[in-house]
From TrEMBL:
The gene is proC. NADPH binds at N60. It catalyses: L-proline + NAD(+) = (S)-1-pyrroline-5-carboxylate + NADH + 2 H(+); L-proline + NADP(+) = (S)-1-pyrroline-5-carboxylate + NADPH + 2 H(+). This is Pyrroline-5-carboxylate reductase. Residues 164-267 form the Pyrroline-5-carboxylate reductase dimerisation domain. SUPFAM superfamilies: 6-phosphogluconate dehydrogenase C-terminal domain-like, NAD(P)-binding Rossmann-fold domains. Its main location: cytoplasm. It is an enzyme of class 1 (oxidoreductase).
Length: 274
């Protein structure tokens, strides 16, 4: 399978690394970046032929020629320009996979008519092979292509196939949700420091706690059961959990997840109008 990455930034390079880890032949991949420095770094790190647009204005067109899958890492406001640039070079049978936040399948289809389009939303742990990649495909995308794409992206983490109507919830729970975990960790560190713990010790302890909790969740993805198992009546954990409940933690989290999802819908509307 021939794969092209157009506009390969941090997230694109993370997904590309995962795709290579899943067994894709690096010689069957073409990537583009904006700067020559970035192209040299990406080519050296991943062994993928990489062309910089600043060195070759036809780099994107060259990269997509003959491609079966074309990953777009460009910003949402650059999609229309990129589609125009690729016109005539992009194969009719190529599946276009967009990583652009806040761009729905209808807008993608308007930019790339008569081609199968897929929308993915990865989160940052994809850079270490433990990401979550939400995947919503247009009806025209063949099932075999979705299976192949799922297998390839599996090198970067868990691929979750969803209907596009579920994308806002996945953004709130996973794509943006990573930052929510980080913020909780940030506050836990600050709380421990305020009680006299050295900051470096607090940072290391909280990071290790998060990693251990994540591994337990991966083995048994039932957070309520795991929480219950460690919460003894009248104990220290129960006291902390009770404090969370009194302060309305469940409602706070629900509002944050919804706010992220609602903002994604607003962005979709803005990008349709733009």
């Amino acid at each position: 399978m021939r794969i092209a990455f157009v506009g390969t930034g941090n997230m694109g390079s993370a997904l590309l690394a995962g795709i290579l880890a899943a067994g894709q032949d690096a010689e069957e991949v073409r990537a583009t970046t904006r700067s020559a420095e970035s192209a040299a770094q990406l080519g050296s790190r991943l062994g993928v032929p990489t062309i910089a647009v600043e060195d070759d204005t036809q780099a994107n067109r060259s990269a997509v020629a003959g491609a079966d899958l074309v990953f777009l890492g460009v910003k949402p406001w650059m999609l229309a320009e990129t589609a125009s640039e690729l016109d005539g070079a992009l194969p009719d049978t190529a599946t276009v996979v967009s990583m652009a936040a806040g761009v729905d399948l209808a807008t993608l289809t308007s930019h790339f008519p008569h081609r199968p389009v897929v929308r993915i939303m990865p989160n940052t742990p994809s850079s270490v092979g433990h990401g979550v990649i939400s995947l919503a495909a247009a009806d025209e995308v063949p099932a075999a292509t979705i299976d192949e794409l799922t297998s390839l992206l599996g090198g970067a983490g868990l691929v979750v196939r969803i209907g596009e109507e579920d994308m806002p919830a996945m953004i709130g729970a996973s794509a943006s949700g990573v930052a929510f975990f980080f913020q909780l960790a940030e506050h836990m560190v600050a709380a421990a420091v305020s009680q006299g713990l050295e900051e470096e010790t607090a940072r290391r302890a909280v990071a290790a706690t998060a990693e251990g909790a994540g591994r337990l969740l991966a083995d048994s993805p039932d957070p309520a059961a795991l929480r219950s198992a460690v919460t003894s009546a009248g104990g220290t954990t129960a006291a902390g959990i009770a404090s969370f409940a009194e302060d309305g933690l469940a409602e706070i989290v629900a509002r944050a997840v919804r706010a992220a999802g609602d903002r994604s819908l607003q962005m979709e509307a803005e990008n349709r109008e733009g």
